Amino acid sequence: MMNVLMLHGNGGGRTRFLPFLEALQDKQAVPFRVHLPELPGFDGRTLPESADGWVPFIDALQRTVAPLWKEPWIVYGHGIGGSLLLEWAARGWVLPDSADWQPQKVLLHGIIGASLEHRFFPKLMKPLLIRKTMQALIAWPPMRPVWEKRLFLQPESIPETVRKQFFKDYALCAAFPVFFDLITPAWYREVQQKLQYEAFNFIWGSRERVVASKYLSLWKNDFPNATFDVIEDWDHFPMLEDPGGFYEKLTAYILHEQA
Fold this sequence. Notes:
The chain is an alpha/beta fold. It is built from twelve helices and six strands. It has a six-stranded parallel beta sheet.
């Protein structure tokens, strides 16, 4: 059976995939298993210190895959989840005991990297104080209406309980500021040089605002062997705003690989 590893973006948690998991439960027979790694520093978990800041997150991925490493895998990363997959790929998809493993397909959805030097937000977030202030503002309940308009095209399409937890997740995310130190232009240049000829699968929304689709040309130039799928009317969080469409699209990728 196919295994699917799914990674959410920064400030997030299991909440971001709840509609997808609910869609799976509604199906009588699903030919794949979904694995949501328990990343340190998210969902209220502590964040251990490491000389190499990537290590705690890579360890969590390894623990998820290692018991079933001989079976087929597809990995999906959204936002910084996709950037984390780039780092793991640059390390050769290393597993404990040097097991020779790599996924059959790599799906990178609205990820952070190529546009770092062209966007204002990563530059704004360099000071730690700004990061912590921004995190607190996103999690602050009175600011919810403002952020909902900024992050969602149709916030009313998302159940109230899911929206509420979405913003609460930011308050529980000890890892939020860490990734602004890890995902930098220098980091991106290093992993891109190692991975530039990989046949990754990039997914973008035509109405993407967090990492706008206008930056796709940068990714296409840096990964000439990759495929790029731009989904009409998707913004950055289709797994919440269009759970049915997100389920159908992701399932199509998985079933195509199984065939």
